[in-house]
Design a protein that fits this description.
10 helices; 11 strands; globular; 34% helix; alpha/beta; 7-stranded parallel beta sheet; disordered C terminus; single chain
Length: 313
């Protein structure tokens, strides 16, 4: 899906980019994108899933984040059906896990080089693309989720070797990293990294040094769990008293304040909040219009970071 000439502030359809314009892998994208994982909840209503994606485009979103292991290919297939080349949407995927429909969790790790290559091929097939503009390597260094053991504990250099080979072959356009430590990012920089996806929010800011490094290296920071609370033990941004006060004063929702804070916090932040509800989607997009003055920002910046390292499995 190649970029076409237009104002950096507008998408191919002429809509204003949701949240303004940011950059990802060298191209302008909406700073508020769409995380497609929750579309799996619409498996029984494929038409509704397609309508959600079309509404994203109408609202000025041209950055969609997906993975083959979301709904065992269902989400990718819906994106293929709903999004055309003319929409010029940047579809970003990830590898490092695979579906496990019969397991205790819906996915299992797939960290070995041959599994990463197979994951890219599966994404290409279900998305119907010749090249995926950016593919994130999901590691297990940090953040909530599974931890690699046994043959899934793979050296970063071995993983980057296959990812750079796939880039050289033209099957992916750029490489990103997910769930990585600061040391891992530093080691990976020579390979050319376009973005980092780590768990990060107003109340979970342990990766501030990594965010700073990403800004210095022109790497997009794409936080997952931007409002916290996805696992037991992770605090919720929307429960924070300072956020509730700001929301009341601004006439916004606490979630909108939490997303707006991320957009204000650093210029390389891109958001991919997910939902399967059209009203929630529109509310997320409206977060891009929430202005936080210096006093409010100072109060929110003073909120302590409280999350710990939580694993499953």
């Amino acid at each position: 899906m190649a970029s076409t000439a237009r104002s950096p502030q507008t998408t191919a359809s002429g809509a204003q980019r949701a949240g303004g314009s940011g950059r990802l892998a060298g191209r302008p994208v909406s700073r508020i994108g769409f995380g497609a994982m929750q579309l799996e909840r619409l498996r029984s209503d494929r038409k509704a899933a397609i309508t959600m994606l079309r509404r994203c485009i109408e609202l000025g979103i041209d950055h969609i984040d997906t993975a083959q292991f979301y709904g065992h290919g269902f989400v990718n297939e819906v994106i293929r059906e709903a999004v055309s080349a003319e929409d010029d949407v940047m579809v970003v995927s990830k590898v490092g896990a695979e579906p496990d429909p019969d397991g205790p969790l819906p996915l299992r790790l797939a960290q070995r080089p041959e599994q990463l290559r197979a994951g890219v091929e599966d994404n290409l097939r279900t998305l119907g693309m010749e090249q995926i503009p950016l593919v994130n390597l999901r590691r297990t260094d940090t953040g909530p989720g599974l931890r690699a053991e046994g043959d899934q504990d793979v050296a970063l250099d071995d993983q980057l070797a296959v990812m750079t080979a796939l880039r050289d072959e033209g099957k992916i356009g750029a490489i990103g990293l997910s769930s990585v430590s600061l040391d891992t990012l530093r080691s990976a920089l020579p390979a050319g990294i376009a973005c980092v996806q780590n768990a990060y929010s107003l109340v979970a800011r342990e990766d501030e040094d990594m965010l700073r490094l990403c800004r210095e290296e022109d790497i997009a920071w794409v936080p997952y769990f931007p409002l916290g609370g996805a696992f037991n033990g992770i605090p919720k941004v929307t429960d924070e008293p300072a956020v509730l006060t700001a929301a009341r004063d601004l006439g916004a929702t606490p979630a909108q304040v939490g997303l707006a804070w991320l957009l204000h916090h650093a210029p390389n932040v891109l958001l991919i909040p997910g939902t399967a509800d059209p009203e929630h989607l529109e509310a997320n997009v409206r977060a891009g219009a929430v202005t936080l003055d210096e006093t409010t920002l100072s109060t929110l910046n003073a909120v302590p970071s409280r999350s710990g390292d939580i694993t499953l499995g």
